[in-house]
Write a structure and sequence with these properties.
By secondary structure, the chain is mainly alpha-helical. It is built from 8 helices and 2 strands; from the N terminus they run αβααβααααα. It has a two-stranded parallel ribbon with strand order 1-2. Helix 1 packs parallel to helix 3. The protein is globular and about 45 Å long.
Length: 124
């Protein structure tokens, strides 16, 4: 089941899906409300955290939404990502994927880059 979710997420991401982790809980399709459904699938959560192009979480809201649902370290990871800038590697991935648009999964495979870098860009 975890592999299926992670596989589907990877397909969506490689066809241009964007992930933003924000505290806009008024949106019924907010990624934060969806995260509660996969809280016990760490590989899928990690993929979502790593693929997020924007992380803007208010501590109080995060604790209200996830109180008692997540292990403390998952909430701390999310808060850490919200408080700290992306690494240069993450920024580079976001820029390359944004420039390639919804067909980034196809285009990345043809770039003259090392295999490891292509895997990183494709969340593999």
């Amino acid at each position: 089941d975890t592999l299926n979710i992670r596989y589907l997420l990877t397909i969506l991401l490689n066809h241009g899906a964007k992930i933003n982790l924000t505290n806009d809980l008024s949106d019924p399709h907010s990624i934060l409300t969806s995260l509660k459904r996969i809280q016990y699938k760490p590989e899928s959560l990690q993929l979502i955290f790593n693929a997020a192009e924007k992380v803007d979480i208010v501590d109080r809201i995060t604790h209200e939404v996830f109180a008692g649902l997540w292990e403390a370290d998952l909430t701390l990871d999310l808060l850490h990502r919200s408080r700290n800038p992306f690494s240069l590697l993450q920024c580079t991935r976001i820029c390359i994927r944004t420039a390639m648009g919804h067909r980034c999964g196809q285009y990345v495979r043809h770039l003259p880059l090392p295999v490891r870098l292509k895997q990183y860009l494709l969340f593999q």
